[in-house]
């Protein structure tokens, strides 16, 4: 069975790749129009290539930095933006899986402890129903620490936010709020 694995980044690919290779012929698919700024996009893509070279992970790249599409499509509300972002990336993965005759698709988003796991699962199942390509669900979060450890041992770049401008902004806003709580005027 051939599975196309949407790959958001190298560190999040380590554990799912390991587990999926027990049952599938796994190929990665790097498509992430949400990553901002462009330099971050390039770092993540280059790190996926580095991981691919070091581990023998075959990865396909839809190398389109289409941040304009992301900003035109995704509203500012957190709930909607994540749902739309997950849908855009998983739809593209399912289309590529269909085009290349893969039996199923999945995503490394199911590895991250920071993603809305049930939302990802629901979107994957809906896309599967719409396209006829099976969405393979598995909760990879159990391997979070193992993936972190291996990515550090491999010296891979580890990003500090999901990728979109909104998540980067939230990260810095939280840090600023934390720093300002102890400040007295």
Q: What does this entry show, briefly?
A:
With 185 residues, the protein is an alpha/beta fold. It contains seven helices and five strands.
Short key terms for the protein model shown above:
4Fe-4S, 4 iron, 4 sulfur cluster binding, 5-stranded parallel beta sheet, QueH, 185 residues, 11% strand, 7 helices, 52% helix, alpha/beta, Rossmann fold, 5 strands
Characterise the protein shown here:
This protein has one domain: Rossmann fold. It contains 7 helices and 5 strands; from the N terminus they run βαβαβααβαβαα. It has helices at about 15-20, 40-55, 65-75, 80-100, 115-130, 145-155, 165-180, and strands at about 1-5, 25-30, 60, 105, 135. It has a 5-stranded parallel beta sheet with strand order 3-2-1-4-5, sandwiched between helices. The longest helix has 22 residues, at about 80-100. It starts with a strand and ends with a helix. The model has no long low-confidence stretch (mean pLDDT about 90).
């Amino acid at each position: 069975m051939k599975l196309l694995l949407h790959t958001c980044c190298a560190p999040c690919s380590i554990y799912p790749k390991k587990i999926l290779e027990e049952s599938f012929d796994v190929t990665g698919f790097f498509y992430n129009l949400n990553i901002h700024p462009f330099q971050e996009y390039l770092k993540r893509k280059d790190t996926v290539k580095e991981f691919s070279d070091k581990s023998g992970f075959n990865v396909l790249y839809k190398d389109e930095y289409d941040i304009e599409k992301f900003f035109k499509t995704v509203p500012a509300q957190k709930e909607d933006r994540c749902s739309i972002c997950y849908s855009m990336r998983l739809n593209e993965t399912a289309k590529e899986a269909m085009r290349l005759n893969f039996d199923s698709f999945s995503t490394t988003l199911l590895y991250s402890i920071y993603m809305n796991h049930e939302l990802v699962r629901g979107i994957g199942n809906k896309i599967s129903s719409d396209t006829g390509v099976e969405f393979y669900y598995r909760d990879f979060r159990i391997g979070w620490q193992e993936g972190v450890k291996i990515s550090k041992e491999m010296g891979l770049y580890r990003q500090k936010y999901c990728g979109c401008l909104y998540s980067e902004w939230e990260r810095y806003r939280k840090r600023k709020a934390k720093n300002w709580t102890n400040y007295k005027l």
